[in-house]
Amino acid sequence: MTHEKPIRFGILGCAHIAIKLCKAITTAPNATLHAIGSRSLEKAAAFVAEHGLPEAVRVYGSYDDVVNDDEVDAIYIPLPTGLHVTWAVKAAERGKHVLLEKPVAMNVAGLDQILEACEANEVQFMDGTMWVHHPRTSKMKEALSDQQRFGQLKWIHTCLTYNPGPEFMKHSIRMKPELDGLGALGDVGWYCIRAILWAMDYELPKSVAAFPGTILNEAGVIISCGSSLQWEDGKSATFHCSFLTYITFDITALGTKGCLRLNDFTLPYDENFGFGSFHESSELDYGKIEPGRWCPKANEHVVETEFSQDVWMVKEFASLVQRVKYLEVKPEKEWSVMSRKTQLVLDAVKDSIERGYKVVEIVS
Fold first, then answer.
1. Backbone CA torsion sign across 159, 23, 274, 29
2. What residues does the Gfo/Idh/MocA-like oxidoreductase N-terminal domain cover (predicted)?
3. Is 21 in a helix, a strand, or coil?
4. What CATH number is given for 132-308+344-361 in this structure?
5. Which of 250, 340, 343, 359 has the fewest CB atoms within 10 Å, i.e. is most exposed?
């Protein structure tokens, strides 16, 4: 679609993650950064100057000004989760396509309001889970789908933790119930749950049961938790997410014949050098066991990439918006389905914690 005009993005707020997306938007060949709005004109202007953004970028002293700019095609929303419903619905009602930072809502009821507004106004929706757009991710899916090498998927574990320090724990919006009340479960648990559903081809589990030992801050916000997930056909999964331990981005997927592992799934270590890698091994490799080893050495698969995963996300979203804008194609709904299923599982984990770690059935 190189013959179509680039999609013009407006951004609501000057959150830290917005820096990454501003650069991604200016890099993607089918996107352009058109406007940034903050709660004050001075803050928006300072953000543009500090990060060397194009002088042509419009700066606004309110979010409404960005949403009401007739030349903005799509809105990226990195605001606190508690504000997502208000601003995503406003954007959709103004005919703006919505790229919404994760977690997308405080609960599935809030997300449904957003998705209903997007559908009613025929605008594209996508959440900001970047890693699923990296070319490595599709190669990993190919490995998981290889019946000869991997067999049938039986179990997956994901772990995403980091220790942001005392200032974060005191002052971050992630610690405030009214702004981002899902805490670690929403911030990093979202990635864990999405990775599990991705590996399971987005088949919802039958039930979840949070692990005893969830840690809350003084305001009642989750700062460390984990859960198990069960499927009707016997597949299972576990995850752990936390703001209290050393940084870890792990996936382990076990099949009847093979295993897939990587420890940088949300952000490849070497992406800035143009590639990402993962490891897999199989019983088919047992004939190649080196002397002194008890199992085959894992195969490392290197996946080269032209862009970083944030650019791939913007590029894919902008392409979908171009299809709607120029070819009058209906918005692609699969991204809404992925987001809603992730939110459903997240809600169930939170419900299990609040009910004393009881098993919670997933109702779609």
1. positive
2. 7-126
3. helix
4. 3.30.360.10
5. 359
Distance in angstroms (rounded) separating the CA atoms of residues 91 and 89: 5
Name the region of 79 (left: φ>0; alpha: ψ -120 to 50; beta: rest). beta
Q: Do domains 7-131+310-331 and 132-308+344-361 have the same CATH topology?
A: no
Distance linking the first and last C-alpha atoms of the chain: 36
For residue 1, name the pLDDT band (cuts at 50, 70, 90): very low
CATH number of the structural domain 7-131+310-331 = 3.40.50.720
191, with CB counted inside 10 A (0-12, 13-18, 19+), is buried
Question: Does residue 2 register a pLDDT over 60?
Answer: no
- Tell me how far apart the 2 most distant CA atoms of the chain are, in Å: 68
pLDDT band at 3 (very low <50, low <70, confident <90, very high): low
Angstrom distance (rounded) from CA 44 to CA 87 = 18
Q: Please report how many Cα atoms fall inside a 13 Å half-sphere around the Cα of residue 6, on the Cβ side.
A: 15
- Number of Cβ within a 10 Å radius of residue 126: 27
Per domain, the residue ranges of the chain are 7-131+310-331, 132-308+344-361
Give the C-alpha separation, 319 to 53, whole Å.
23
For residue 38, CA distances in Å to 43, 68, 107, 114, 173 come to 6, 14, 25, 21, 16
